[in-house]
Design brief:
about 375 residues
């Protein structure tokens, strides 16, 4: 493993220091958040009514549930040695790979990929609502920015998607194929549409070749940042944009993950992009991609996963049904920032409570990855 290098650009511009007034809530934000909660509840309630089992209102279908080890780099500059990355050392982690919808669909309905990382055994003052936990969660997608700029704009999109939950799965597959063609045409001329991808137009590619980011900003100790998980081991890098055979394989993404981890290990870097300019790297516009030429992503840690069963019924029962991941499960030094992140606090809590009550299954707090069954 090579030692991290820190680009000159990191010291060329002082990173923005966190302060409370970086956030500017809209006057009617509470009403908007209630609308989001209601729309997400509609997704969960519809799935429960149809299947008899409550799922997450988003990212319901998991494709891999992994144990790993996070190693914080030594010798980080002061601007990067922040929060849980302040002190070199290792932490056990749980990684949950998923796709977007709140209903369980054939993988040929191809939507953005998600990654939730739960870092165990962290120290620090806790965010409200997670005082009795000792983990830090990072909730990520394979994108650099969110599909909507504000909670209000997100609500408009979500109402449309909520109305399609558990309806016409065959039609969704056909529509996904059309949308993938549209997205391929857009990308052929150098573009990309997060909206088309979110509606089912994501390419049929391997989850392990993707780079995942928090998409939205969060506190990074004294500063503000986005965080990424980037594949670096050769076997992962080789899977970038690699197609996955999903013909007659409704769970083909899961099967591909199982096949990989039967024999191979994997390594990712955790990288940080510090906010250095509030004009080009806004806090409240979630749809704005932060320019990497102004502030590059820089490594602060690695995650390593050894060969293991990537998905089993026992792991599914524990992680999917009795564990919760959320950006507000963590320490104050990594407080989520911006309107969409603020909306995630109560909406995620409501989703967790609904799942727990409907399934009669209280949430489980993992002490260590040894408790993760094979």
């Amino acid at each position: 493993m090579t030692a991290p290098t820190f680009p000159q650009a990191l010291s060329a511009t002082d990173p923005v220091r966190y302060r409370a007034d970086l956030e500017q809530p809209e006057p009617d934000e509470a009403e908007t958040i209630q609308g989001l909660t209601d729309a997400l509840h509609k997704v969960s309630a519809t799935v429960y009514e149809d299947s008899g089992h409550a799922e997450r209102s988003v990212h319901a279908k998991s494709h891999a549930l992994l144990r790993g080890v996070l190693q914080v780099d030594a010798g980080l500059p002061a601007t990067l040695a922040q929060g849980i990355f302040k002190t070199p050392g290792s932490h056990e982690v749980v990684m949950r790979f998923s796709t977007n919808p709140g209903d369980i669909l054939n993988d040929k309905v191809s939507t953005p990929r998600g990654l939730a990382v739960k870092v165990l055994g962290v120290e620090g003052d806790r965010l409200p609502g997670s005082e009795d936990e000792t983990s830090q969660d990072f909730v990520m997608q394979n994108a650099k920015a969110f599909t909507a700029p504000t909670p209000k704009a997100f609500l408009k999109n979500l109402k449309m998607l909520a109305g399609t939950t558990d309806k016409a799965p065959g039609l969704k597959q056909a529509l996904s194929a059309v949308l993938r063609g549209l997205e391929k045409g857009i990308e052929a001329v150098g573009g990309e549409s997060g909206t088309i991808k979110s509606l089912g137009g994501h390419p049929l590619t391997h989850l392990l070749g993707e780079t995942y980011t928090t998409v939205l900003p969060l506190r990074y100790g004294e500063y503000v940042a986005k965080i990424a998980v980037v594949p670096v081991s050769p076997a992962l890098v080789a899977l970038k944009d690699a197609p996955v055979d999903l013909d007659d394989k409704p769970d083909g993404l899961r099967e591909a993950m199982q096949t990989f981890f039967e024999t191979q290990s994997a390594e990712w870097e955790i990288q940080v992009q510090l906010c250095t300019n509030l004009e080009t790297m806004p806090i409240e516009d979630a749809s704005k991609e932060w320019p990497e030429e102004e502030s590059p992503f820089v490594r602060v840690a690695t995650i390593r996963v050894e060969p293991q069963p990537a998905w089993t019924d026992a792991r599914h029962a524990l992680v999917d049904d009795s564990m919760a991941f959320g950006p507000w499960k963590g320490v104050v030094e990594h407080q989520p920032l911006g309107g969409v992140m603020r909306a995630r606090k109560s909406t995620y809590t409501h989703s967790v409570d609904f799942r727990s009550q409907a399934n009669g299954c209280p949430m489980h707090r993992l002490a260590g990855t040894a408790d993760l069954p094979d």
